[in-house]
Amino acid sequence: MPALSPIRPISPWLLYKVEIHRANKRALAAAAGFPHYIYLYLALRDDTVRASPLMVRRLQRLADIVGFPKEQIFLDEVTK
Known about the structure:
The chain is mostly helical. The chain contains four helices and two strands. The protein has helices at residues 12-20, 25-32, 37-45, 53-66, and strands at residues 7-9, 48-50. A two-stranded antiparallel sheet has the order 1-2. The longest helix has 14 residues, at 53-66. The radius of gyration is 12 Å and the shape is globular.
């Protein structure tokens, strides 16, 4: 049985940056790699997210688009 991806706490500030971004939310979700905005919204509204490689890539693309620091996506990131 394959190992599951870890569940990691996600920063609520990423959702805030997405909400204040001027771009159409469906276009924003598509540019980040989400199949539909609802999947993006549900992931950002939860306190935690299953950090699969695909989800991490999508969140990193989203952070790039809205100008959010990649190292602050997850709250359990160790700061340097």
